[in-house]
Amino acid sequence: MRARLLAVTFETDDPPGAARFWAGLLGRKAVEDTGGVLLPGGDTQLGLRFVPGRPGRPGANRMHLHLASTDQQQTVATAVGLGGRHLDVGQRPEEPHVVLADPAGYEFCVIEPGNRYLAGCGPLGELTCAGSRRAGLFWSTALGWPLVWDRGEQTAIQSPHGGTKIAWDAWDGPPVVPNPRQRFELLPADDDQGAAVDALVALGAARLTTGDDGTAVLADPDGNEFHVRRT
């Protein structure tokens, strides 16, 4: 397709602090980015980006990360030592994953070793989103990432190179409404922003506005905001 996924952007009142937490947890290097701090990804690992704004609010966030682990207790201890905290979201005692919140107020889970679904996905195993099958199909086509799971309203996609999965499902509990605190950040694959935006609109995206820096702001079929940069 004409656009590629640069990162998932998270708003926070302390972008450098959030970036330090995730850089330490994932073993990445944080770099300055336009208006924020970026932890670059790659062909198989999702990039993370932190920008000034409202912090996350557990229970109201529509995305959260799943970390794969070979030593779950050590990964949890590292996260807590870096500033994370345990979080009760109603998980049952017998559930094997551990739920935490990062310093910016966003939930994430440390998944137990040997989890077959995340086998081979790397340390950042999955980004899971509250959303519909329609959104999953849209993003599969928009990014050129094949479906690797499609059952009922549950969908998941993955880069052709493997690595981090992105999944959509109708979460239990109160509905999580669209909000721009968490959003996809795209780059035009051939430096042609206009063509990338036109292609996304043809697939079902809606044009919203254009930022002062020329970033195109759109919404996916679920109404979730995402950005397409100039380059």
Fold blueprint:
Blueprint: E1 3-12, H1 15-26, E2 31-33, E3 36-39, E4 48-52, E5 63-67, H2 72-82, E6 85-86, E7 98-101, E8 107-110, E9 124-130, H3 133-143, E10 147-151, E11 154-158, E12 165-169, E13 182-188, H4 193-203, E14 206-210, E15 216-219, E16 225-228
Parallel strand pairs: 1-4, 5-8, 9-12, 13-16
Antiparallel strand pairs: 1-13, 2-3, 3-4, 5-9, 6-7, 7-8, 10-11, 11-12, 14-15, 15-16
Helix pairs in contact: 1-2
Mean pLDDT: 93
Strand order in the sheet with the most strands? 2-3-4-1-13-16-15-14
CATH structural class:
Alpha Beta
Topology-level CATH name: 2,3-Dihydroxybiphenyl 1,2-Dioxygenase, domain 1
Number of strands: 16
* CATH-level-4 superfamily name: 2,3-Dihydroxybiphenyl 1,2-Dioxygenase, domain 1
